[in-house]
Design goal:
The protein is α+β, with helices and mostly antiparallel strands. The chain has 15 helices and 19 strands. A hairpin with a 6-residue loop joins strand 5 and strand 6. Bound molecules: flavin-adenine dinucleotide. The site of flavin-adenine dinucleotide has 41 residues, from helix 1, strand 3, strand 9, strand 12 and strand 17.
């Protein structure tokens, strides 16, 4: 039985970066991934299923935190921003600034090399099956190696980077820190094609070579959105994310039987510019389906002997479902915090708690507010989204919300809007309620407990706020 300071389970974006950071800061680290080496980071048999879009700010974060930089070929294509369109295509809001479309398989291979060059040991074709425990804490993992033999590996700390379906998280005992399961209401079923397409005309509402486009539309993509992200040349990443209850309601009300698969094909047909498309064969990564969470990350990212990163901790952004940035940030921060705990000789819960604080500071403190906004958005039909995007918010206020900042919906501006004869007053009042709740959650996150002892009370306060919001807004796509 081999023994390490740190085991990193999973070799995706968050895992390779956690392994790199942990070894860079002096911990004896091993990274286990179930894929063969050339397929490092592949999520499922469907490939590295992703929209491939990442904001430049996250790459800059890694530059500062780890000193790593990126260029072609892993950065496939640069965009100026991400725009979200209303269902009637009359309004568009800037959603995210400058960013890149990645070549995910090439990025994964680069990150693997980087982890190894920083001293991490790498074991391919190792399927992690669960955590081992000793003295009330996680003490290692067990699983099957490349020869299909059972193997146990022990470590002072285990970093879980195995993604949304994590077998490690789900096999933790019932505990107050980390939830073992994610509610289906907080999951988007998503799928996408990477295609070379023949463009029929020009219309930057449907395809924009300079920007990534998101289409909010409760008929085309109930409870989620469709996207067309440009890649190099004639290539696009096109896909749809949907929420289970929303699609059921939408199908029942429209007497339709759509599934995620038919919705993606329908979305491509709806786009008048996509004349003919050919799925790209490279790395067998052209067509794939997988799930992504759209809630705040778990209230704590640590449990005795255990730390979680990326999708295993429900980190994707609740509005955009963007999880690459949070996976990068959390991987780098978890690896460093683990190595610091090892170096200090104290790997107890209190010692690794610093990771919770740093992740919240770098990214996590806004996600609860974004979860509130996402829940509200899913309760609006196309007409209300069209009207709301035209009348409820200015472009600046919408940008603020997408970054988790609270717009100044002052009493004066609110009255002006009401007096100017705004329709759909209930939806507008609900928006004011939502903005208030977002503010309250941001306040709570600004007081994230510095020590484990304050966690229970803080968590109860967050849960109560979130429960109220979820009771008030239910999916209502049509
Ligand atoms: C269709 C779709 C579109 C998306 N679009 C975007 C987008 O455009 N922008 C964005 O920012 N985010 C997007 N996301 C989310 C993003 O892809 C993820 O958040 C990101 O990949 C998370 O990285 P990760 O390293 O945490 O997990 P993963 O990428 O899931 O990596 C987990 C790794 O662990 C391995 N593993 C899993 N289980 C085991 C096991 N038992 N034993 C050993 N190894 C294991 C896997 O094989 C994989 O290598 C999208 C997601 C989907 C599904």
């Amino acid at each position: 039985m081999e023994s390490y300071d740190v085991i990193v389970a999973g070799g995706g974006i968050s895992g390779t970066l956690a392994a790199a950071a942990s070894s860079m800061h002096g911990a004896k680290t091993v990274m286990l991934d179930r894929n063969a080496e050339e397929n490092i980071g592949r999520k499922t048999n469907w490939g590295w299923v992703c929209g491939d879009a990442v904001a430049k700010s996250h790459l800059d974060f890694l530059g500062k935190e780890l000193g790593i930089s990126f260029s072609s070929p892993e950065l496939d294509y640069k965009v100026d921003g991400v725009y979200a369109f209303s269902p009637d295509l009359k309004q568009k809001f800037l959603f995210e600034g400058e960013g890149y479309s990645l070549d995910r398989p090439k990025l994964a291979r680069k990150l693997l090399k980087y982890a190894i060059s920083n001293g991490a040991e790498y074991v391919p074709e190792f399927v992690v099956e669960g955590p081992m425990f000793e003295g009330g804490r996680v003490s290692g993992v067990f699983g099957r190696n490349s020869r299909n033999e059972q193997e146990k590996i022990t470590a002072k700390l285990v970093i879980d980077a195995t993604g949304i379906a994590s077998m490690l998280r789900r096999k933790l005992p019932e505990n107050e820190y980390i939830e073992r399961d994610v509610s289906t209401d907080d999951i988007e079923s998503t799928g996408r094609y990477i295609m070379d397409f023949e463009k029929d005309g020009d219309d930057d509402r449907y395809y924009d070579p300079r920007n990534a486009l998101i289409h909010l539309n409760q008929v085309l993509a109930p409870g989620g959105y469709g996207w067309v992200f440009p890649k190099k040349g004639k290539r696009i990443n096109v896909g749809v994310g949907v929420e289970k209850k929303s699609i059921e309601l939408r199908n029942a009300r429209l007497n339709m039987k759509d599934t995620l698969h038919t919705l993606i094909d329908g979305y491509i047909k709806w786009n008048p510019l996509i004349k003919k498309g050919e799925i790209v064969g490279e790395d067998s990564n052209g067509k794939g389906y997988w799930s992504v969470t759209v809630r705040r990350q778990f209230d704590s990212l640590v449990y005795p002997g255990y730390m979680g990163t990326g999708d295993s901790m429900a980190m994707p952004n609740p509005i955009s479902a963007g999880g690459i940035g949070p996976a990068m940030v959390s991987g780098a921060l978890a690896g460093r915090a683990a190595a610091e705990a090892i170096a200090s000789g104290d790997t107890g819960l209190e010692s690794i708690w610093r990771y919770n604080l740093r992740y919240n500071e770098a990214y996590g403190s806004k996600t609860a507010a974004l979860e509130v906004f996402r829940t509200y958005l899913q309760s609006l039909n196309n007409d209300l989204i069209n009207y709301g995007m035209a009348h409820f918010l200015t472009k600046e206020e919408a940008v603020d919300i997408s970054y988790g900042r609270i717009p100044e919906l002052t009493i004066a501006s609110t009255f002006t809007k009401i007096l100017s004869g705004i329709q759909n007053l209930t939806a507008f009042r609900n928006l004011i309620y939502v903005v208030g709740k977002m503010k309250r959650l941001n306040e709570l996150y600004s007081k994230y407990p510095n020590e484990v002892s304050g966690f229970r009370q803080w968590k109860a306060a967050v849960s109560a706020e979130m429960h109220e919001v979820k009771e008030r807004f239910k999916p209502n796509p049509i």
